[in-house]
Amino acid sequence: MFDATNVSYDTQIPNNVGLSGDRRVLKALERWHPGYIDWWKNLGPEGFQEHMVYLRTAVSVDPKGWARFDYVKMPEYRWGILLAPQVEGRTIPFGQHYGEPAWQEVPGEYRAMLRRLIVIQGDTEPASVEQQRHLGATAPSLYDLRNLFQVNVEEGRHLWAMVYLLHKYFGADGREEADGLLQRCSGSAEAPRMLGAFNEATPDWLSFFMFTFFTDRDGKMQLESLAQSGFDPLSRTCRFMLTEEAHHMFVGETGVGRTIQRTCEAMVEAGIDDPYAIEKVRALGVIDLPTIQKKLNLHFSLSLDLFGAEVSTNAANAFNAGIKGRYQETRIDDDHKLTNATYPVAEFKDGRIEIVDMPALSAINMRLRDDYVRDAAGGVKRWNAIIAKTGVNFEMTLPHEAFNRKIGTFAPANVTPAGEVLGADAWNAGRDQWLPSAADGEFIASLMKPETEPGKYAGWIAPPKIGIDNKPGDFEYVKLHDA
Amino acid sequence: MTTIDFQTEPSRYRHWRIQVDGDVAQLIMDVDENGGLFEGYQLKLNSYDLGVDIELADAIQRLRFEHPEVKAVVLRSGKERVFCAGANIRMLAGAAHAHKVNFCKFTNETRNTMEAAGAESGQHYICAVQGACAGGGYELALACDHIMLADDGSSTVALPEVPLLAVLPGTGGLTRVTDKRKVRRDRADVFCAMEEGVKGQRARDWRLVDELVSNATFDQSVLARAKAFAAESKRKVDAPGIALTPLQRRFDGTDAIVYSTVSVSIDRATGIATVEIHGPTEPAPETVEALHGQGAEAWVLRCARELDDALLHLRFNELEAGVIVFKASGDPKLAAAHERMLLDNADHWLAGEILLYWKRVLKRVDLTSRSLVALVEPGSCFAGMLAEIAFACDRSYMAEGSFEGDNRPPAALILTAGNFGRYPMSNGLTRLQTRFLGEPDSLAAAQAQQDRALTADQAAELGLVTFAFDDIDWEDEVRIFLEERASFSPDALTGMEANLRFAGPETMETRIFGRLTAWQNWIFQRPNAVGEAGALRRYGTGVRGDYDRRRV
Ligand SMILES: [Fe+2]
Ligand SMILES: [Fe+2]
């Protein structure tokens, strides 16, 4: 019997799934491994493959102490396969199989559906690594550089997690899909990643922070709902991924928060009261708050698209099948089957935004999105607290859910961040007030100068309150000079 | 219920765009979600309903007549990441059985037209697939001469009907996979039982597509392939097309439609629709230039278009007209002359296209699930292609000699060269070959009488009509037949007629309209698909179909 809490290192791939006793899957994964390493070297962080980076590695799935910190060269990172411990007697928490024992093997009739969900989730993991690969060159500090790489290696591990499921449970098709995850590439004209937001550029560090705040939070919501799955191996996989995901959102929230903090401090020091005195603020070498708001608008709207259409047959099927649940399913007080329940859904009809009651089953995406918006709003509130503390008079807000959408009912609509429906021309005329313009991008890019001295930070961002792994302020998170 | 109209034109399209550039046209599917023909569903992901298909049929027809210079048509999606999701499921789930059946038949006829355009006219359809191409979407692709699939790791072709909806890919899908693309039957079984479809190399290896194309150079590759098809095309025209001008059509109350060469009247009490064709009154154009000059005004083209529209109208809007009586009035010699003009110039593109169009219209008659009867009366005009209508009917009655008090000339029937090869049925045989399947001598005897005005006696003797009656018996016999027909079960009649009409060899087309359609229509009636707990009904609710597990 292997110990499912501690991780075994007796194979090339650290794991708590007894891989050394599963020759078939081990062989398949070992065959996949070189392609993964090639992918990491070609499309992973550019220019830092040989540097020692102070990273955490999962060594256990015990929530109290699962990680170990040490210096490692990223291509030598031990990407492991880690599933949260099996819960004895777990039952399917929703859908038509509610209350039945959770599946330990894939039920044949749901094989295709499960595989599709796993492939879609798996496709996002390497995508963000690809999107962020150029950022190392302009990191505002070694601390931030390390955080970037930490997020990157963990996204790599999430890819491993999905690939393990594909290899273990989906036979030849699963192997083919696992190869496909390395063939598609973010932003590629040839073979793009499956979801829109994962083909967008991440041109600067503010984008990176916004991405980890908003898009990784979508990842969190997806993982939360897959963690409810009746397919137990998927549930356990996602539960463990969530422990890592928390750090990604921390990086995003504190990154944006520190940017805001620095801007406000600089404004106060220079005696600028008006947050809209953009040129004056920019002259201080910090990013003005309205531009940060525009970035927020962009990333929020892109991430909402990731939830898919408000009314979705696929989502309904997956819920009813017991494959993908709701956020915190087990804490919801209802029949968990949604047989006759309804859910209010936004609809764009005849040029108006309306709320209509739809069968709750087909509104699963909408509900998850609503949960997401609430979750994201918490972070925005904390940013506003930072602003308020400095005395600057400005509030960040989440734009209206209909703003700048490409998927779902609002795709054809032209809606302002305030929720006003406009004609296409009027919307296009207003676009640059709401979304980063080319000039905004150029300004932000002009601030993106690397800061490589331990303990120093670029002028546009405040230092963090505490270091990673409680390290002192001048800790050398990435050893730039001995490579 | 509002009347479904099959007449449209590009400026009114909501779902398609045609872009012509030299010898290549782009036919772009960009379905307006909110442009459904009926209430209650949205045409998401380029899914289609009858309204979308009416525009497609119109576009295909116009490409042949209005753009004879086009030798390759690229069929593609105007939407990102989706080619076409197939027939709209909510529309199907909500539609009455008869509408589903008629819808499938019409879409099948349209798919056949795409294939015919390449095979007969050298106007080849090339399907350029990026994104998901599922169900009816893949069936559209299957109807093209060449399928190109983006090799982007996510574009797929799929026929998910069985696992997802508990119905069949009934728009030729199953048949074309095996008969046209000759996919191995066990692989076809795998393919048709999977929801998610096949992509990349496997799609190519299994012959589900012809070519994999890099996404980055997709447009160039598709254009190059279209150009290559155009260069190889047997079509050698560089002439301007003719405009398919709006039909002259007037609805006279609810029970009559008057076209310029066709009139339809419906007797609701008896469920009989009478379709009367008016033969030409002017001499046939003497030259192809004159024909081209007349364009859509030429009698022979007008008549085909009007008859086509009338048939579709009856099929979709007059479900209770169980019997269609065909009559033709005019001078049969003149009608034969109009046809001969086309036959003599069949290698001219326009003359050729009009003949091919008649071939399609006559097939539409064959496939109309009503009791069809031709009344060859005094003063009638059944010659050539119009005689072919009589041969398409389940029965024909011909009047002997003159009728008392009727000064019209006695009924005459004229066989032309057209009846011996120009208008084959879907089984690949002419209607006379099919008719005389067991008596080849009769075919030869009929051919020996080509171009003569045959009396009722002669026509009956030759086996060209079912019965010949003089004016003493005529009225009663016809009335008794019609009354008897009205007393039978419409379902049994539909089944009986469909079986008796298509003797002879099986072709891909007969298999689509026979085997595939019959099974599909059966499944469309079964609770496993359309019952309250059936998969089609439950589609979109998230709840799977509950099946009656007994095999039938
Ligand atoms: Fe992740
Ligand atoms: Fe993440």
UniProtKB/TrEMBL annotation, chain A:
Signal peptide: none annotated. GO terms for molecular function: oxidoreductase activity. SUPFAM superfamilies: Ferritin-like. NCBIfam families: benzo_boxB. GO terms for cellular component: cytosol. It comes from the Bacteria. This is Benzoyl-CoA oxygenase subunit B. Gene3D superfamilies: Ribonucleotide Reductase, subunit A (1.10.620.20). InterPro entries: Aromatic_CoA_ox/epox, Benzoyl_CoA_Oase_BoxB, Ferritin-like_SF, RNR-like. The lineage of its organism: Bacteria, Pseudomonadati, Pseudomonadota, Alphaproteobacteria, Rhodospirillales. GO terms for biological process: phenylacetate catabolic process.
From TrEMBL, chain B:
The keyword Glycoprotein does not apply. It holds the Pfam family ECH_1. Gene3D superfamilies: 2-enoyl-CoA Hydratase, Chain A, domain 1. The keyword Lyase applies. GO terms for molecular function: lyase activity. CDD domains: crotonase-like. InterPro entries: Benz-CoA_dihydrodiol_lyase (IPR017633), ClpP/crotonase-like_dom_sf (IPR029045), Enoyl-CoA_hydra/iso (IPR001753). It comes from the Bacteria. Keywords: Lyase. SUPFAM superfamilies: ClpP/crotonase (SSF52096). One of its GO terms (biological process) is fatty acid beta-oxidation. PANTHER family: ENOYL-COA HYDRATASE, MITOCHONDRIAL, ENOYL-COA HYDRATASE-RELATED. This is Benzoyl-CoA-dihydrodiol lyase.
